Amino acid sequence: MIGFLRGVLIHKSPPQLLLDVQGVGYEVEAPMNTFYDLPALGQEVKLHTHLVVREDAHILFGFATENERMLFRTLIKVNGVGPKLALTILSGQSTEEFYRCVDDNDVKGLVRLPGVGQKTAERLIIEMRGRLPELSGISTQKPVSGASLSMTGSPKQEAVSALCALGYKPQDATRMVQAISVEDKSCEDIIRLALRGTIK
Length: 200
Hints:
Elements: E1 4-13, E2 16-21, E3 24-29, H1 32-35, E4 44-53, E5 58-63, H2 66-75, H3 83-92, H4 95-103, H5 107-111, H6 118-129, H7 132-136, H8 155-165, H9 170-178, H10 187-198
Parallel strand pairs: 3-5
Antiparallel strand pairs: 1-2, 1-4, 2-3, 4-5
Helix pairs in contact: 2-3, 4-6, 8-9, 8-10
């Protein structure tokens, strides 16, 4: 098991990034909450990781904090929640917001996330409630410094592509981006505002 990676950030295009660790390039998928705090390209970053092994692929997931990784690992143990949906949940809500939804039985707050239906939201609340005390005790301090995303294409186009990669339908992703003023905003800001708009 790969517990963490420390290396130079070579490329980032949500939800994927490429990390050069002593000459080996690791492709990592990360939630948007981690992307918001990535340093600029060419800078060193440390990510807590979780490896998912499937018959057709080995997928490495990276997280800015141990708390995010622990929540991800707990989410994928819930019946009906796979790694992709867990990544979407962590992209659409902070760990604190997710805990609040569980504590408050806020089914509507979870259903707003793509791929989370009524039954899945109810199952998440029931199965996660008993596990929150141990999860909440983990430090949420982020070890990486913030910087805007650096990608090709216009910020608006990149934001739509990133939302699609997180599970939103193309028409929904486009609508979410068009609903906010994107002038003079980075891709990071557009994605953040679009995701925030889904949980209001």
